[in-house]
Design a protein that fits this description.
Elements: E1 7-12, E2 20-26, E3 29-36, E4 45-53, E5 61-63, E6 74-76, H1 79-94
Antiparallel strand pairs: 1-2, 2-3, 3-4, 4-5, 4-6
């Protein structure tokens, strides 16, 4: 199970491909983690993206592949690995000057 710290939304994967999406938020940035069903039921795959919210109070966001935290969509094979990344991401996103690494 993924952490509930900073969790703002849990829903079915929005594109209709099956699976669940967890959205985490720290200020105007966050992380979206989606698990997709696989043919091998014993394999779990999480895709994780850093995101930037469009407004201060809404839940619409864009993918943000321009931070030092993650420059692409990441893939993890288990909940523990995703939780470890989330812990690091929360620390990174809470830093007052983290946007210095952002190239937009």
């Amino acid at each position: 199970m993924l952490t509930e710290e900073n969790l703002v939304l849990t829903r079915s994967e929005p594109n209709g491909n099956g699976g669940l999406q967890f959205v985490y938020r720290i200020n105007n940035y966050g992380v979206a983690a989606v698990n997709f069903p696989t043919q091998d039921i014993t394999q779990l795959e999480w895709t994780v993206d850093v995101i930037k919210f469009r407004t201060a109070d809404g839940l619409q966001y864009d993918l943000c592949h321009t931070t030092d935290l993650a420059k692409k969509t990441l893939t993890f094979r288990n909940d523990r690995a995703v939780n470890e990344f989330l812990e690091k991401a929360f620390v990174y996103l809470k830093k007052p000057n983290f946007t210095e690494g952002v190239v937009e």
